[in-house]
Each structure stands twice: as structure tokens, then as C-alpha cells.
Amino acid sequence: RIHHLIKTFHCGPGGWTESQHPDGTITLTAPTGRTYTTTPGGRLFFPQLGTATAELPTIDMPPPNPHRTLAAPRRSRTRAQNRAYRIAHERALNRAHIDADPPPF
């Protein structure tokens, strides 16, 4: 998911660059020059899909749309709110389970 967001919203001149290799790995280069390489996990389960393809041609990235961030996904709740919700929900389930079958003492 993260590489899709980077490719969609942060690639282009002055931003991230990305190159795909014949074996399916993707190398992302940050504006600072640091590189990150992802390897496709599918070939572990589907070895026939892990065969290398021909050398891929390089293409020039189109200039970024200045309004591209308007299409970026937004969270409806913060991570902290999601975590608090999950904890409260699990506690409510635990309480209901205990109340349905109280201890005998």
C-alpha cells in the first residue's frame, strides 16, 4: 500500500523516484537519496509468478499535478482514536462474556 501512495502522490521532479526490476522488486529512492527496496512476497506462495521478465524500459514521469494531494485518502479517525476504540470494544466484549457466565463465588 505504501508504495502505491508514494508513486501516486510523491513521485516526480524533486520527489521520490521508483524503478521496477524484471524480478518484480521495486526500488524507491527518496528525495534525500536513500533507497528502499521491496521484494514481491507472492513468489513465496506462487513460485511460477516469480520468473523474471524481459528488461523493462524506463519511462519519463509526467510532471506532477499540483492538485494531486486532494485525492489522497484521509483517515476518518486518528490511529490513537482507532486504538482506543478497539480497546473499548474488546473490553465491552469481555465484560459481556463475564456477565453472561459469572463466577460461582
TrEMBL record:
Region of interest (Disordered), ranges: 55-81
Superkingdom, taxonomy of origin: Bacteria
Keyword annotations of the record: Endonuclease, Hydrolase, Nuclease
Single GO molecular function: endonuclease activity
Tagged with keyword Nuclease: yes
This protein's name: HNH endonuclease
